[in-house]
Amino acid sequence: MSDQTAATGSTDELLAELRSQVEAYERGSATAEYSPEGRLLRANDAFAELVGVDPAGIVGTDHRSLVSPEVADSAEYTELWDQLRSGSNLTGEFRLLWQGGGDRWIRSSWVPVKNRAGEVVKVIEHALDVTQGKRATADAQGKIQAIYRSQAVIEFDLDGHILDANDNFLDLVGYSRDEVVGRHHRMFVSEADAQSQDYQDFWQRLGAGEFVSGEFHRYGKGGKDVWLQAVYNPILGIDGKPWKVVKFAVDVTEAKARNADFEGKVTAIRRSQAVIEFDLDGIVLEANDAFLDLMGYRQDEIVGRHHRMFVDPDEASRPEYRSFWEKLGRGEFHSAEYRRIAKDGSEVWIRATYNPILDADGKPVKVVKFAHDVTAEKLRNAEIAGRMAAIDRSQAVIEFDLDGRIRTANENFLNTVGYTLDEIVGRHHSMFCTDEYAASDDYRDLWARLRDGEFRSGRFHRLGKDGRDVWLQSSYSPILDLHGRPEKVVKFAYDVTEQVRLEQQLNSVPA
């Protein structure tokens, strides 16, 4: 055998081996070949299945017919083929218009093939279907965006230094982003708390990967009180170890203050969230244990059923209810307090947000609802409001600041003294007293004791409009804030003028 024959044999064997390797690779990969202008020359079965057509059916078509119009018309798409024609290897993700119905996302590697003169004669594409991964990512991102829209969010490193915060959190505490990033979480707590062992243990637990939730008293800019229902979530890296902490919080300061005004004390807000997911038609996909416990169902009793199972039948039949789900299907966010019906028929009130979850194209795919149980709060407030309404109907009531300035009064009080509300708001309580009494030590002592939080009651002589005598059986009740400090004074009174006059007349009759 000549050297030339041997060389030819070696070349044939090398080509056969290379061809075998290419064929083996193509059996496990979706592969297509294009002209430098993007005309499809050949596609294997895997690629044809990926785009949803017969292999012979796409030969000769232009690559741009496989992608969405917005991709085909983009500058990035033009740049892609310009670079391929220049000989550059490229990778990227693309949205195909799948002929089988719907869209598919693929991750492609593009390899230009050159002739001996260095000219690109064709382009080979190796593609991988990443549709499921894209959908899972969009679902996760949608849930995160829903939480960011509805809650205050702040991030820390494992030592408690602030990495970032969203606008909801910054608005809540009154700081700008530059004022908090890089500083320690202790800027939001009292000095005593920051130095406590509990606070050190708190960050050690987070650093060890423990989840911490509860209700927390914090301080905003200027020392303002902020109460948060919050969850501290250690975020794990790919090695399974924590590398930062994300805190999701709900502002409950207003509810705290309202309950203190009504009851003089603060009750705990529910410590966990109830979560349930629906498709766009309102069919239940899944729910967490907190939601199931709240409504009294098992998972298999609600999955596949419609949201209306939790709604009063009269409400579910109204056009507003249908409109509610139509708006959610269009991607509109909803937040409010809602009345719902548990499995045993009992009434449940929740403070909830309905959050449409968007796919990779920004289209709603399902709805996630985050909820807090506020049933006890609603019943308690209704009872307290009812009691206050009963008192308001039967007694004369007036409110003062701690200096004795009038803030408001009910109709019973106004009728008793003969003034309108505009005539007394902002004026001092002394307008109802004689000049002699208003200048006395007893009068100054009355307001000093009230400012100290002391309760005073008795029968008091007061002056109505035009100086007429009014006698009141009254109680002056200091109202305390969240820290037990007096913040205003409420006076409850009965008009006993006629009774006093009768007593005076009887006392004036000779024995």
Concise synopsis of the structure shown:
This protein is α+β, with helices and mostly antiparallel strands and 511 residues long.
What do we call the CATH topology of the largest domain? Beta-Lactamase
Poorly predicted spans: 262-271
Determine Rg (CA atoms, Å). 37 Å
Count of alpha/pi helices: 21
Classification by helices and strands: alpha+beta
What is the rounded distance between the termini? 158 Å
CATH hierarchy: architecture of the largest domain = 2-Layer Sandwich
Number of strands: 20
Structurally, the number of domains stands at 4
Strand content: 25-35%
From the spread of the alpha carbons, the general shape counts as elongated
- What's the mean pLDDT score? 84
Protein name: PAS domain-containing protein
Pfam families: PAS_3, PAS_4
Organism: Paractinoplanes ovalisporus
Domain PAS: 153-183, 275-315, 397-427
What does this structure look like?
By secondary structure, the protein is of the alpha+beta class. It folds into four domains: 26-129, Beta-Lactamase, CATH 3.30.450; 136-263, PAS domain (Beta-Lactamase), CATH 3.30.450; 274-374, Beta-Lactamase (2-Layer Sandwich), CATH 3.30.450.20; 395-507, Beta-Lactamase. Helices cover 38% and strands 31% of the residues. It has 21 helices and 20 strands. The strands form four sheets. It has a five-stranded antiparallel beta sheet with strand order 2-1-5-4-3, sandwiched between helices. A hairpin with a 5-residue loop joins β8 (212-219) and β9 (225-236). The longest helix has 25 residues, at 3-27. It is elongated and about 145 Å long. 22% of the residues are buried.
